Amino acid sequence: MEVRGNQALPTHNKYCPQCNHCTKISQTTDTCWDIHGKPPDKKWFPNKSTKAMQQPVIWKVATSSQVAPSRPPSCPRSTPVGLLNGGSKRRKTPIIEVSYPLPPDAVWKKVSLRSGLGKREREYTQGWSVTDEPLCKRCQKQCMGKNAKRPEFLEDLFCNLVCYEEYRLRTSNRFLREELFKIEHGVCTNCQLDCHKLVKDTRPLSLERRREFIQKIAPNIAKRKNMFEKLVNEPTEGNAWHADHIVPVYQGGGECKLENMRTLCVACHSDVTAAQCSERSKARANAKKKLKELMGSIKIGMKCSAVTNIKDHRAIDERGSSVIEDELFLEVPGSAYSIADS
Fold first, then answer.
1. pLDDT at 268 over 90
2. How would you classify the pairing of strands 241-245 and 261-265?
């Protein structure tokens, strides 16, 4: 039920492009082996020159006529308690389901952005009208910003900040965590522990003083050895607090807004998760019990029907045999039976 963030994450998943044709990481439709074939030397990654890396902003638009994303369905309607898709058990919505359908007179294009020195390019898919006007990445309306045709940041691919925040909330767990921090400031809603202040005050201390400080300020975390050691060795926000779903994901609380999220310290989140696991195990046990009873009743019914069928067959056989025996006794003139009768 958690969304971790602000930790040392691997960078190869953060900025690497993804091919829309074969869905492989670290390649695009321009370098896809399925489209262009496998190169003889088995290497298809061009080297980036240092001069290109020093450019502050690189912008390019390429028409992807060969491959177009699947037509996304209409945006699901909102439901109470911040649930975007009531009953969903997914933590976030796939990108193709977030955007509105592309207008019939528009085409998909690829936009590559790189902002800042030394940052890698990131490719995004955006709709463009036949009049060469960029469309919002979510609602497919025309973008009117000054950087709409030459975008520098991801925000430039949207018509306004509302669409941008809605898109990011539903596709990025890190953004969801950052927005939750702006509201609750890293304070646990259960035990009221200020996790942000705990991390901030723990970082400049030595390992021994970190242990003493955490044991004094957060005794619930200190009681759990693994969490305690992790926070002592690496005092980060992700090791101190988690973003928890109020309505659990397994109960349909996935794909939610901030209304269904709350801040919990790692100790309280562990307790909540343990309680939910116990509840789920009890529910599974009750379901197995009911299933067993149902199967038992079905077996009993099948046995009763089988016994009834056997009895019916036996009755039919008995009636048939008596008929056959009666047919065997025939009156023959001059026989002992005919004389006795006379």
1. yes
2. antiparallel
Rounded Cα gap, residues 99 and 168, in angstroms: 11
CA separation for the pair 33, 22 (Å, rounded):
9
Q: Is pLDDT of 71 > 70? A: no
Band of pLDDT at residue 171, cut at 50, 70 and 90: confident
CA angle 187, 188, 190 (to 5 degrees): 145
What angle, rounded to 10 degrees, do the helices at 225-233 and 207-217 form? 130
Q: In Å, how far from its chain's centre is CA 142?
A: 30
261-265 vs 106-113, strand pairing mode: unpaired
* Total-model pTM: 0.56
Helix-, strand-, coil-residue percentages of the chain, each rounded to 5: 45, 15, 40
Four-point Cα dihedral 283, 289, 291, 297, nearest 10 = -150
For tokens 């963030």, what's the residue?
Answer: 5
Position 101 confidence tier, pLDDT thresholds 50, 70, 90: confident
- H helix runs in the chain, sequence order: 33-36, 50-53, 95-98, 161-171, 173-184, 195-202, 207-217, 219-222, 225-233, 266-328, 336-341
What is the distance between the alpha carbons of residues 285 and 184, in angstroms, rounded to a whole number?
37
Instruction: Give me 38's structure tokens.
Output: 């496998």
Which residue type, as a one-letter code, is found at position 21? H
